[in-house]
Amino acid sequence: MPEVIYDPSQTDFSRAGKHHYQVAFHQDSSWGYSLVPLAVITGLRKSAPQARTTGVMASGGIRGNEYEGPVAVKRLCHDLDPEEVSGRVILIPQLSSSACIANQRSSPLDGVHMNRAFPGNPRGTTLYVVSEEIRM
Asked: Under DSSP, is residue 120 helix (H, G, I), strand (E, B) or coil?
């Protein structure tokens, strides 16, 4: 079961191994949260010191009606073995989970199209805040 994180700054990106999270972002005008899946793989493979500080991030589900990205990122979440990785891999299969669930390009929560939302706005709607947190 993924660990739920209510404060994105509390995500532990340095913990070795493969860890799955649900990052909770407050939804506007409601008591609920929008959960964004996140996998962090910090490699265990011995390598040059600079390789341990490098990494890559992949996301899918930016447009909720395109499934190739989420499928590819979920496969990476499953298939990558920390024993074979040096550095860090951050995987977000569904950046706009609400749009993916609704099978729409934009989120039905606030009408935001994630591909147009970057760099985000701390006073914006839920998905604008998500895009700002991920950019940091």
From this structure: coil
CA dist 122 and 128 (Å) reads: 7
CATH superfamily, with its number, for domain 3-135:
Zn peptidases (3.40.630.10)
Q: What is the pLDDT of residues 97-111, one digit of tens each?
A: 888 889 998 888 778
Mind listing the pLDDT tens digit for each residue in 35-48? 889 999 998 887 65
pTM: 0.78
For residues 117 and 121, give the distance between their C-alpha atoms in angstroms, rounded to a whole number. 8
Collapsing DSSP to helix, strand or coil, 84 comes out as helix
Closest C-alpha to 90, from 101, 102, 80: 80
